[in-house]
User: Fold these one by one.
Assistant:
Number 1:
Amino acid sequence: MTSLSNTDISDYLKSQEQKSFLRFITCGSVDDGKSTLIGRLLYDSKLIFEDQLAALEKDSKKIGTQGQEIDFALLVDGLAAEREQGITIDVAYRFFTTDKRKFIVADTPGHEQYTRNMATGASTADLAIIMIDARKGILTQTKRHSFIVSLLGIKHVVLAINKMDLMSFDQEVFRKIDEDYRGFAKDLGFEEVVSMPLSALKGDNILSVSENTPWYKGPSLMDHLENVQIDRNEDGNPFRLPVQWVNRPNLDFRGFSGTIASGTITEGDEIVVLPGAKTAYVNSIISADGNVSNAEFGEAVTICLDRELDISRGDVISKADNRPEITDQIQAHIIWMHEDEMLPGRPYLIKTNNKTLDGVITDLRHKVNVNSLEHESAKTLALNEVGLVNIKLGQKIVFESYAQNKSLGSFICIDKFTNATIACGMVNFGLRRASNVHWQAVDVGKESRAKQKHQEPKVLWFTGLSGSGKSTIANLVEKKLHAMGKHTYLLDGDNIRHGLNKDLGFTDADRVENIRRIGEVAHLMVDAGLIVLTAFISPFRAERNMVREMVGAGEFIEIFVDTPLEVCEQRDVKGLYKKARAGELKNFTGIDSPYEEPEAAEIHVNTVENTADEAADIVVKKLGY
Amino acid sequence: MSLSHLKRLEAESIHILREVVATAQTPVMLYSIGKDSAVMLHLALKAFAPGKLPFPLMHVDTTWKFKDMISFRDRMVKEHDLDLIVHINKEGVQQGIGPFSHGSATHTDIMKTIALKQALDKYGFDAAFGGARRDEEKSRAKERIFSFRSDGHQWDPKNQRPELWNIYNCRINKGESIRVFPLSNWTELDIWQYIHQENISIVPLYYAAERPVVRRDGQLIMVDDDRMPINKGEEILHRKVRFRTLGCYPLTGAVESDADTLEAIIREMLLSHTSEREGRVIDKDVDASMEQKKKEGYF
Ligand SMILES: Nc1nc2c(ncn2[C@@H]2O[C@H](COP(=O)(O)OP(=O)(O)OP(=O)(O)O)[C@@H](O)[C@H]2O)c(=O)[nH]1
Ligand SMILES: [Mg+2]
């Protein structure tokens, strides 16, 4: 390269631009040598600067795992905690270029605890190097990562059978692991699995085929990475543009911006905007290069149409003759990525490529045992578990299956309160049920029923700790309303727990389902024109909000019976606190199960400052009766 | 046909810029005037064309930047009709904080990290773009594109939000914020290649010219103004030098070079045996210094 003259530079840059590109990951079980491999690749390709190399040599002696030798893993394990513990915690992205290709590699952690970080790296990769320690063979974590690689749609796998130096480069060891793996992976949908005997530490079969493995004919790892051919079906698929942002700088300009999720678009094409289904023609396309006559998959563009349509973020533009599907119920695989378990029935936020909306997991069809790949029935998913679920969305979305289109078939789940990213999902298909089971259009409606009763239907939702006085106050309120000629109904433990919900216990999942059913019943009763009173602990904000959103605006009145835990426990009318303290009663709210206080309850009462009757009067007064 | 390398990077960055504008309440772009900021600004102008930038730029001025940087900044603002906020840590100035009197660590902490936090709080920005790249440094290589910061601007490297595909979680609670790095996946070469391809203006200090410098602790430090003390035994040399990165002049080492065209700069970069951070005085203090600074709220 020392001969690069000024004129060469332009040519050199042109040749750089023409290079193809590959994103890959390393994954596999703990300590299999993933980080070492990446470090080795960078080192052998002379991609480490002198100052970085000096730092590496110094660090290796100080904190490395290889005595006086270089510990290549330190090149990628960049966090202080990783270097101290000699493990990878989060994914590292590294960049390198060879004469043929440009690469982005994501080095992912092997520890099960950090599986979500592995999934993060895998979601944008086209190839996965699955590492195996030749001494240990296939481990649970090898299988888990292979399964996630397959779920995320990676089709090209390199099975890197590493640490062959510790097994005397024995062909039989290699053959056996290769055979076992192919047996395991046959149903994972990989297009290609290429197995290689490696020593990441010593460099065998990394850049060139090693003399230590005369029985292995190649290719070397680098050779394969430089030449493997990746086809993305998004290139040839029909045109899809998820509208990300509406560009309206002034009255004369109105463009729809987004990144093309598949296919191509040309000026003059007839398009349709979904879910609204209005059609128009493309007037102009603005890409990063200014006005262009056509644009393709992957480009971030702004499209202007020949007429004024009401289009907003979340819509999808496609060609008029080839439209994606629309649904508000999907079936999808999800990877659960949070310490708090997944609860069917709890409302979460779902974020798709260009839209954030409410969603409820209505059904966990099964969870997948990553070891056997068998389906197991389950009620919840814990951290790092994978399941097949049905999800009911708060609005319609435009989608395609993940297999067909990664952009339109992927989503993440977000916790409504902490905003943590708690899961990722890959859509299998839309469930048609939702669009078929239309509400029966009845002539007598909620309004006419309510009118007949001379009242506005409402849900008076009492929440608070066990023994706080919910039922007592709710009872008194019902009496007072009844006396005023109101049509009411009180739902509480006695008429619900013994009947409708007698199959439910007190785990978090059951508590969520309990409240969901009560919410649905209350919803029906409001529809019938009644004033419904409910008296349940209902400890989680998420579920109370779910019911709030179920009924009409202004119809949900949250009444927080705010009696302190000490007082409730002191009263202990039913002796439950005593049992819970003695450990005889599990999952008792306030003791070993949380109570999340309302943040903005409409009415706030307690039975310390007031008697139950006074509290009931306060409620009736606040209600405006 | 699939997109060329730079086209792909360009599209990814534009997608990120637009996503923030579509979801954040009060975004801001942290503009540090260097080459990465120049590229980030260029991409933003494309992302929102033909409109104006839908957010302001903010420059956290330590008062020790090269003079050439400030005049370049003001030129850009005029040229592109930008909305610029300049924030200076007033208390720091009152206390006379500077790299010569207080050392690089204290100076950077008070005039840069604390100043940045002050400014973000003052204006209530919930999302801030930064031009950092993952290839710059080992803890950067670990950071998400949408990097969540707690109330108090802290980064928790051991507990980052998963970030899948190009679906970014932009949701935050009150007081929290997100730092967004649209150039995460660009390398130093990509940046230069793009500047070359798009003909992007950069601060003249990147080009070699004869400049007054002093050799100090193995670095060539430019005498940019008369606040620079000349120690005994030091002499002002006039050398043809340039800078690979830009920051506070007392903390930025120059390299001797003849590269006075973009082509020559790129050639020099291709032949270089050291990384661009080599010229930064602040990173070498402690092993994990960048990570530590980021935890405390540094960019
Ligand atoms: N003998 C030998 N040792 C190796 C080889 N590859 C890696 N090692 C050693 O195995 C240990 C673990 O290597 P890492 O690269 O940190 O493993 P990892 O897979 O990245 O680990 P996690 O990311 O924490 O899951 C280190 O001590 C390496 O030096 C190899 O090919 N041969
Ligand atoms: Mg590792």
Number 2:
Amino acid sequence: MTTVNFKNISKVFDDGTGAVTDFNLDISDGELMVLVGPSGCGKSTLLRMLAGLETVSSGELLIDDQIVNHCSPQERNIAMVFQNYALYPHMTVRRNLEFPLKMMKLNKHEVQRRANEVAELLGLTPLLEHKPRQLSGGQRQRVAMGRAIVREPKVFLMDEPLSNLDAKLRLQIRNEIATLQRRMKTTTLYVTHDQVEAMTLGDRVAIINQGRLQQVSEPQILYERPANIFVAEFIGNPGMNIFKIALRPVQDQRLAICWGKQQLPLNARQTQALQKYIGKPLFAGLRPEAFRHPDASDADAKIEVEIESIESLGHEYLLYFKNHITTGEVDSLRAKGDNAVNQPMVARLPGKPDARVGDKIKLGLVLKQLYLFSSSEKLVGNIL
Amino acid sequence: MKRFWINSAITLSLLALALLFIAPILLMLVGSLKPDARVLVEAGSWKALLPDQASLQNYGDVFSRVDFSRYMFNSLWITGCVVVAGLIVNAMAGYAFSRMQWRGRDMVFSLVLMILIIPLEAIAVPLFYQVTLLGWRDTYIVQIVPFIANAFSIYLFYTFFLGLPRELEEAARIDGAGVLRTFISIIVPNAKPAFASVAILTFLTQWSAFLWPMMVTSGEAVRPLPLGIAAFFTLPPLQWGDIFAFGVMMVAPVLLLFLIFQKWFVQGVAATGVKG
Ligand SMILES: Nc1ncnc2c1ncn2[C@@H]1O[C@H](COP(=O)(O)OP(=O)(O)OP(=O)(O)O)[C@@H](O)[C@H]1O
Ligand SMILES: [Mg+2]
């Protein structure tokens, strides 16, 4: 049984860099928690604080309900897989695997037994007498994993363990890690900047931006109910299209959502729900998956777009088109919003493209999948 | 064909240059094998490099005229102690400066760097008073202790350790090793080139130490080789052959050591950016 709790954790480096701010996260026993976020958001710092390699500036760090803020790394009984593996270059694979066991002062027989066992489990037995520099990237990665699990620690920490591998190997080892973790049921904190890795691997995923936790939940929920614009744009491949909208009255006291030349009229219930946002800045989000061919049966609105580029992926294609928002329409609230104005929007459509760059075409929309975000970037809901 | 001549010309001129540098050593070696009378007479001619009628007479003379083995033992003992103790102390100091966090570290380190530029000659006299007060004159200790901690060695280790990947130590700490265990099991085995460089540089400095032993010792009992060879210049009659023989025997261990550690030494120089 191992739980990990971050309670109001902050980290300010000696040079004044604030890497983590008021971070709260509870990881339950046996869970595989993935920390994901863009480069420099503080993921590694969080992991290193938990490992005891970095001091905690404020807040409490708990492992099994014990405050470990001031424990040295070796007192915490955790294991870590580093991005560059950090294998001991002067030791053979066998010695690398044995090192943590020797530090536990196990007897010689037990040390050998456990090292052999782990080597067997990870398919390292034929490599036991090799030095790390004689191994391929994937093999080194496995040795690093082996060195972490051989101790049967309370918590595994992994900092981008796959980022030095090629795409195919990454997929394979990702699956191995998932299987291994499920079998060993060791509480795991896994850091990555790759949202696909995060979504496929994590029991739960914590999304971090600029040192702050944005949202933590199961991968599916992150996709379906992103807590804010950052999460919405971050999750998904490509992420959600975000654009500024305005609410305008049209006939019968109904409202319409307007952006650029597009106008989506709302029904009475929807008008009711959005009444209080009239005159306030609002952002809308549409997943690339919310677009349809114009004649699709579930498309309940149509928009006209001008194609900027097309990426064909074989069984489907991505259609990039101009985001027809005139900046004057909604006052620019924040730089980010303006950025969103200039970014092209993207639709994911099945089959193969039948239009060309520069064409003006109609696209269908599933309005159910329109998300609305308030000016503070919080999710208002996909009320439609 | 033209290429061949050019290459030969280059090779020949390089050989000549090499000969120029090797000549003194060769002269010493050849001279040490010649009867004393001929050493000076032939010194100016090509015959100086011609060891006909070679004999080991001079080597025998060295042993009979001074207690050579005593000098040799003293030098080996003193240098050995300084090298071994120096490696331990300076490596640990370098590690503490490069990797450990402690209050006042940067200030202490800048003091160490300042010591770098103070030559022994400048502090020899006050140091002499100090060891006299301690009653250390005419001992081994007085020739060992002041030279164990060495600013340059510390600096060399410091730069080398800075270059080692930090993750190695972090991995070791997480794997359950304490600071000392990490240092011994992880750092030291990965710092062989630095150890070799420091060992050789320390050895060379100590092996030729002259001024300090001269000041603090009297008599053969604890004196090292450089004072022994100096004794020959003041011990009549002046025998050049004997001096050469002494010289050869004094240089031999250095060469041997260098040949053994050459590979590491070159790596160390490359890794730490230190020029010999
Ligand atoms: N030792 C340090 N001293 C000062 N600032 C640091 C230090 N380590 C990290 N930082 C800063 O803290 C912030 C978070 O760094 P961190 O390494 O945790 O990011 P990350 O999320 O792991 O990024 P990446 O995905 O690139 O690894 C960055 O702005 C970084 O510049
Ligand atoms: Mg990182």
